[in-house]
Design brief:
This protein is mostly helical and 276 residues long. It is built from twelve helices and no strands.
């Protein structure tokens, strides 16, 4: 890949750059709104591979994708009755605490290790999604579903990797809500989208303060992710997500294996990274 030492000044004004960022944002926003996962983790490999962002900047700059897609898709979930505030509020509060912890820890992790851990994280989440497929689409609403402790643990489990990796909140919340809170799949997606909006907003602000947000990329990425989230949210309340979730598992496995293999501990290569 050709290296541009001053890419932030030149590429941000070119049409190819805008097309790349727009396609990345629409792709992440669409799947994020469709599956209630935010979609930020989906764009990280493209931010690194197509735009050449460093590991830390790619993970941090991906956060606004989840915020934008969640915000745009949430109205469709709310209108169809798939928002449960009693469950979402404790998840949201604890996830905010998790984001603050994860964001602070991120600066102590080397870029290569961050990508390696992210790959392992995605492989674990792929296994969780595969497990959630076996639970069926209809959840239960018994007393166990409203366990405060489970909601808090779910929020922490989603918030910490969201701050650490710049992604991961939604892809933990959706299968976690199905398995731990025993709700239907679309309700789990609604919980996820509502909870990750303040979570990713906080994470973006903290990453910006640390200088990890690529300012030339983030505005275009956020705007196009919002548009993608509108389409994804509309389709989510009309389509069954089992087949698409199966495709998502394949994507998780592919990206996870690629990150682990590329950053395997026994490999000793130097990779050039761009700073936008």
């Amino acid at each position: 890949m050709k290296h541009h030492p001053n890419l932030g000044e030149e590429a941000s004004e070119g049409l190819p750059f805008l097309i790349k960022v727009s396609l990345i944002g629409i792709f992440g926003g669409f799947l994020g709104g469709l599956l209630g996962i935010g979609g930020s983790f989906l764009v990280i490999p493209f931010l690194s591979g197509l735009l050449g962002l460093s590991s830390h900047k790619a993970h941090a700059t991906a956060l606004p994708v989840a915020f934008a897609s969640g915000l745009s898709a949430l109205g469709f979930y709310s209108a169809s009755g798939h928002i449960d505030l009693k469950l979402t509020i404790p998840v949201m509060i604890s996830s905010l605490v998790g984001v603050m912890l994860g964001t602070r820890w991120m600066k102590y992790v080397k870029g290569r290790h961050l990508s390696l851990w992210f790959g392992c994280f995605l492989l674990i989440i792929a296994a969780g999604f595969a497990l959630s497929l076996t639970t069926g689409s209809e959840g239960q609403t018994g007393e166990a579903s409203y366990s405060l402790l489970r909601s808090i643990l779910l929020g922490l489990a989603a918030g910490i990797p969201s701050g650490l990796f710049g992604a991961g909140g939604g892809i933990i919340m959706v299968p976690g809500a199905v398995l731990l809170l025993q709700v239907a799949e679309q309700t789990a997606q609604g919980i996820s989208l509502l909870a990750i909006i303040p979570t990713t907003l906080l994470g973006t602000w903290m990453q910006y303060r640390q200088g990890n947000i690529a300012s030339k990329v983030a505005p275009y990425l956020t705007a196009t992710a919002f548009l993608g989230g509108l389409l994804g949210g509309w389709l989510a309340v009309h389509l069954h997500g089992s087949v698409l979730k199966g495709l998502l598992i394949v994507i998780l496995l592919y990206i996870g294996i690629q990150n682990v293999w590329k950053n395997r501990p026994w490999k000793n290569t130097r990779v050039k990274e761009r700073e936008l």
